[in-house]
Amino acid sequence: MQSMEICEQTIVIVTTCGDDWGGSEELWSTSAYLLKERGNRVIVCKAGLPGKHPKYIQLVKMGIELRDVHPKTSFMRRMMTRVMSKVSIWHRRNETIPGFVQTDAVRQFSKQLAKYRPDLVIVSQGINFDGLGYAYACLRKHIRYVIISQKAVDFYWPQPTDRDLMKEIYRNASKCYFVSKHNLRITEEQFGLRLKHSQIVFNPVRISRLVPYPSTQPIVNICCIARLFILDKGQDILLRILSKPLWKSLPIHVTFIGSGEDEIALKEMADLLNVRNIEFLGFKVDIRKVWESYHALILPSRSEGLPLTIVEAMRAGRPVITTAVGGNAELLIEGETGFIGGADELSFEAAMLRAWKARDRWEEIGKRAASYIDEVIPEKPERDFVHDLMSVT
C-alpha cells in the first residue's frame, strides 16, 4: 500500500455560500478531509458559520477547525465598529477603496490570516466575484491563494468601480478553478482578461453507479431537484407550463425536491394556477434513494455553474431536461443524453415536448448519459483537485 504524503501545512478554506449548505460546498469540504489526512492543519471560515449543521459537525469530528468570520456581536460593539470604520475611511479619504474589501467579514477574516499565517487559502465563491474581498486580504498579506468559482452569470456583472481591483486579485491568484467552461468564459469576458492559470474542476458526485429504472406505468414521475430560489432555478417557468391544459391532461407527476426562500411563493403560485400534478418534498439527503422512484430530471434554470444534480441524474441513468445556461449544455447532447431548451417558457416547453415524445427511449437515453459521465468526470474529483492544489503550494 502506498504511503500517504505528509505535508504539515496550514490551509484555510473560506466559503461565501449564503445558505447553511449547498452543492457548492461539496468540493471544498471533501477536499478538506483529504487535506487533513495528508497531515495538514485545516481551518474553515464562513460568515455566520452554522456550527450545529450536521456537515459542519462532521468536519469538527475529523479534526477540522471552524471559524466564524462574522460572529454575532452586541449592538454597542456593532455601533463602535461602524464608527471606527467611518473614521478609518475618513482618514483615507484621498484613497479609493472599493466596498467589497471593507466588509466586517473581510476584516474578521484578515485577523484570522494574521493569527494563523496559512501556507495556502482556498476561496470558494458562490458566484465569480463574491469572495474576492477574502482573496484581497490574502494578497495584502502576501499569502498564496486559489479561487474556486461555482457560478458566473451573464446578467450579473461586477460594479465598474470594483473591476480594476478584482482583475488584480484574479491575476495574482495561484490558480483559478471553474466548474464549467461557460463560467471561465464569462469571467474572462466580464474582466477583459485571459486567465491562463485557470482550470476546470468538477464537484464530487454522490452516485457511483446506475440506479434501476422504475416502471413508467401508470404515471411518469419527473423530479426537479434544486434549491427553491426562483431567480436562479426558474421553477416558476415550469409551473406556468404545467398549468396549461395539455400538461394537466398527461399522465405525469412532477416532484420538487429541495428547500429555499421561495417555497411559499412557489406553492402559492401553483395554487393560483391550479397545478395539481405536483408536490413539494423538501430536502432529501439520500439522492440514490430518490432516483429509485423517478424517470427523469427537469431543471428550468435561469443561471447555473454546472449543477451537481445534473451529473448525479446522468450517472443514475436518467435523462435530463434542462436549459442551455451555465455548463448544462456542456454535458448534454440533444436527444441522446438529454433535452435542452432556453430559460424561457416557449423554448423550455418545446424541450419538454421533445422529451415527452421520446419517453419510450428514456431508459436507453439514461444509460447513454451514464456512460458519458463515466468517461468525462473522474470518480473522485476531489482527489484530482487536492493533487493539483499541492502543486501550487
Can you describe this structure?
With 393 residues, the protein is an alpha/beta fold. 41% of the residues lie in helices and 16% in strands. It has helices at 26-37, 54-61, 75-91, 104-116, 132-140, 163-172, 181-191, 230-233, 235-242, 245-249, 263-272, 287-290, 308-316, 328-331, 345-357, 362-376, 381-391; strands spanning 10-15, 41-46, 65-68, 120-125, 145-149, 175-178, 198-200, 220-225, 252-257, 278-282, 296-299, 320-323, 338-341. Helix 4 packs across helix 5 (132-140) and helix 13 crosses helix 16 (362-376). It is globular and about 65 Å long. The model is unreliable at 73-81 and 83-94 (pLDDT under 50).
Please describe the structure with a list of short key phrases separated by commas or semicolons:
17 helices, 2 domains, 16% strand, 393 residues, Rossmann fold, alpha/beta, six-stranded parallel beta sheet, seven-stranded parallel beta sheet
Give the overall pLDDT as a whole number.
90
Q: Give the full name of the CATH homologous superfamily of the largest domain.
A: Glycogen Phosphorylase B
CATH topology of the largest domain: Rossmann fold
Indicate the overall shape. Answer: globular
Structural class: alpha/beta
* CATH arch. level architecture of the largest domain: 3-Layer(aba) Sandwich
User: Strand arrangement, largest sheet?
Assistant: 3-2-1-4-5-6-7
Distance between the termini: 26 Å
